[in-house]
Design brief:
Chain lengths: 366, 366
C-alpha cells in the first residue's frame, strides 16, 4: 500500500457495484434514536472462572468497567466468579431463564444440552484464534451461533480467546501411541472422547483437584490451559513432562451469553456499548495470553526443570484420525452439529488455503 | 479448561499477590463522572484511502456509525476519503494541528517525519497480525507509540490490520536473486529501500497509476495489498506472476490518529466509546481480510490464469539480510527508532519462542 490516493475514477472502474455500500447491523429506527433514556440498569454477570481469574476474569472486570464508563453509570454490571451466586454448571440455564443477565465461560461446557455448541469454542484440530475470529466476525459463524442460542433466549458474543493451548502434563514420556493405551488422562469434553478413542482413559476432574490427583497418581496426565495458567496451578511440582501442541484446543473462543429479553430492554446506545466492549475484551484476552505465555513457559523450563516435549508424529496423526471418527459420529446423530461443522469446515478449507501463502508461508522467516 | 470451579483457596495458594488486582487506564475522577454532558461534538475524519475503500474505508464508516449509536448522536464523525478535504500526504499535519480530529491511515506513511513510526505499522520480516496486537495491547507497544505521537499532539490507536500481505505482481518470473538486479519495482517505504539494497530499483508510484505503469513496462513489478484489493485493481491483466509471502508487510496495523486536544475535550464516556469502537474496528478489519482473501486468490488463479509463486529461498534470505542492514543503519541514525525496534525485537523473540510450541506447531496439523 502507499499513502497516495487511488483516483476515484480508477476505483469506480475496477470496483463492482455494491462493494462500497455498507451493511449495518442496526435498524434505521435504532439509528435515529438520539434522545437518551435516563433509565438505569443493574446487571449481574457470573462466570465459570474464579473471581478475577487471570486474563479471563480480569477481562470481564474490564468489560464491566468499560460499559460503566461508556454508559455514564446507566448500565452497571456486577461480575461474580463461579459459585459465588451461580454454580458454573448452571450458568447457561441461569442466563437462559433470566435469573442473571450475563454469563461468561466457554460454549463447549453446554455440549450435553447443545452438542453443536462446542464448535463455537474449539474444534479439535480446528481453527486457530485468528481464523476463529474471521469465521465468527466475517465468515457467518456468529449468525449460526446466534440462531442456535436464540431458542434458549440467549445472545452469544465472542469474548476472549486463549490462543493455542498446551497438550497437557504427563508423569511419564509419551513416545508413541502405545504410551496412550490405558493412560488415565484428565481431559474434559470432546478432547476426552477423542483421546479415549485413541486408547487412553479420559476422566473429568474439577480444576482444583487436578494437582492432588496427579500427585497421588490417580491420573497419569492432565490438560489445563497454557503456560501462564498452568504455572499458577503448580502442576510442574507433580508432573515433569509438558507436551505441545494443544491439538484439542487450537484457539478456544470464550463466550459471553446475554439474556435476550434483558438485552432487548436496553436502549440502542447501551446495546451498542455492550457489543463494542465485548469485541474489545475478545481481542484484549487473546493479546494477554499471547504476550504472557512465553514468560511462564521459560520459568517452567528454566527454573522448574520441566521437560518440554512435542507429541510424536504418530500420536498426533492417531488423534487426528480419532477426531474425524468422533466428530463424524457426533454430526451423524445431530443435524444442527452437522450444519455447523459443515459451515466451519468449508470456511476452514478456504482460510487454510490462504494461510499457505500468508501465515504459514511467512512464519518460518520471522 | 473445564467448567468446574477452581477452588478459591487453591487459587490464592498458587497466585502471587497482586495478580488479581486490575489496573484500569482511567482515573478515579473519570470513573466517578456519572452525570452526562449534553454537549454535542461533530468531528471530521479523513483517511488515506478512497471513500468507502474496501475493508479499510468501510471499517471507518462502521466506526463512525458505532460511535454515533453509542453516543446517542452526541459525537458525530463525518468520514472523508483521501483528497476530499485533506490530501493523504497532509493527514498527519492536519490531525496534529487540529484542522481535523481524526486521521486513518498507516503509520509508515510518516516515516519521513518520524522514522520510528513505521514500526507501529509493519516491520519487514516482523510480527504477524496476532503478534502485533499482542505487542501493542499487552506488550507495551501502545505506550511507546503514544509517547512518540504525544509530541505532535496526536493520540494513536491500532485500528485495523491487513494480515500478511502478498509479495507483489511481476511481469516475469523471479527465479533467483539475479532476477532482482535492476528490476524496476513499485514498492514504497522501507520495503522499497530493502529491495533496492538487494539489487532492485524501487520506485514510488501512486496507487491509481500502478496499472498503467505495469502495462506500459515503466515498471516490472509492483506490490499493493493482497488478493481482495489487488483483484479489484485489475493487476492480473498486466502482470501474470503473483508472489508470496509479503515479507515487507507481515501484519500491517492501520492507525487511527486523534487530535489530543480534541480528544481531551470529550467527556470520559465519549472517550471510552471512541477507544472501544477503535478496538472493535481493529479486529473487524483483520477478520474481513482473512475471510475474503482466499475467494479472490482463487478467482485470480482459476479465472484469470494468474501464476501463483513463492519467492525462491535465496531471494527471501537475501531480502532478510538486506532488512537487517537497512534497519541497522536506520536505528544507528535515530535513537527513538533504536528504542522502538529494540523493544519490538525483544517482544518478538519471546512471542516467536511461544509460537514454536503453539501456532507454528499446530498449523501443519490443521
Amino acid at each position: 500500500m502507499d499513502k497516495k490516493t487511488i483516483s476515484r475514477r480508477h476505483l469506480l472502474q475496477t470496483l463492482p457495484l455494491g462493494i462500497v455500500g455498507l451493511a449495518c447491523n442496526r435498524s434505521e429506527a435504532d439509528q435515529k434514536q438520539e434522545a437518551r433514556s435516563e433509565e438505569k440498569f443493574t446487571w449481574i454477570a457470573s462466570t465459570t472462572w474464579s473471581p478475577h481469574f487471570p486474563i479471563l476474569g480480569e477481562g470481564m472486570d474490564l468489560f464491566a468497567e468499560q460499559v460503566k464508563i461508556m454508559s455514564g453509570g446507566r448500565l452497571t454490571i456486577k461480575v461474580y466468579g463461579a459459585g459465588e451466586i451461580v454454580p458454573a454448571f448452571e450458568l447457561f440455564d441461569a442466563v437462559s431463564q433470566g435469573a442473571i443477565q450475563i454469563g461468561h465461560g466457554a460454549s463447549y461446557y453446554w455440549a450435553g444440552k447443545i452438542p453443536s455448541a462446542g464448535f463455537f469454542c474449539s474444534t479439535p484440530f480446528g481453527l486457530n484464534a485468528q481464523q476463529m475470529n474471521a469465521w465468527l466476525i466475517a465468515g457467518g459463524g456468529m449468525a449460526l451461533w446466534e440462531e442456535i442460542y436464540a431458542k434458549y433466549n440467549i445472545i452469544p458474543f465472542a469474548c476472549g480467546n486463549t490462543g493455542v493451548q498446551m497438550g497437557g502434563w504427563f508423569r511419564k514420556e509419551i513416545n508413541s501411541v502405545a504410551d496412550l493405551q490405558g493412560l488415565k488422562m484428565r481431559m474434559p469434553g470432546l478432547g476426552g472422547k477423542i483421546i479415549s478413542r485413541a486408547g487412553a482413559s479420559a476422566t473429568q476432574i474439577v480444576g482444583g483437584e487436578i494437582y492432588t490427583s496427579l500427585e497421588r497418581g490417580v491420573i497419569d496426565g492432565a490438560e489445563w490451559i497454557g503456560p501462564y495458567h498452568d504455572y499458577k496451578m503448580g502442576f510442574y511440582q507433580v508432573a515433569k513432562y509438558y507436551y505441545y501442541p494443544g491439538w484439542h484446543e487450537t484457539g478456544s473462543t470464550l463466550e459471553m451469553m446475554i439474556n435476550k429479553t434483558a438485552f432487548e430492554k436496553l436502549p440502542p446506545d447501551l446495546r451498542e456499548m455492550v457489543i463494542s466492549a465485548a469485541a474489545r475484551a475478545n481481542a484484549w484476552m487473546l493479546a494477554e495470553f499471547e504476550a504472557k505465555n512465553n514468560f511462564y513457559l521459560k520459568k517452567l523450563v528454566q527454573e522448574e526443570n520441566v521437560q518440554l516435549r512435542k507429541f510424536p508424529e504418530d500420536v498426533l496423526q492417531t488423534l487426528k484420525k480419532a477426531t474425524e471418527e468422533v466428530i463424524g459420529e457426533m454430526i451423524a446423530a445431530d443435524p444442527i452439529s452437522k450444519k455447523v461443522y459443515a459451515h466451519q469446515t468449508a470456511f476452514k478449507k478456504e482460510i487454510l488455503q490462504w494461510s499457505e501463502v500468508s501465515e504459514k508461508a511467512i512464519l518460518p522467516y520471522l
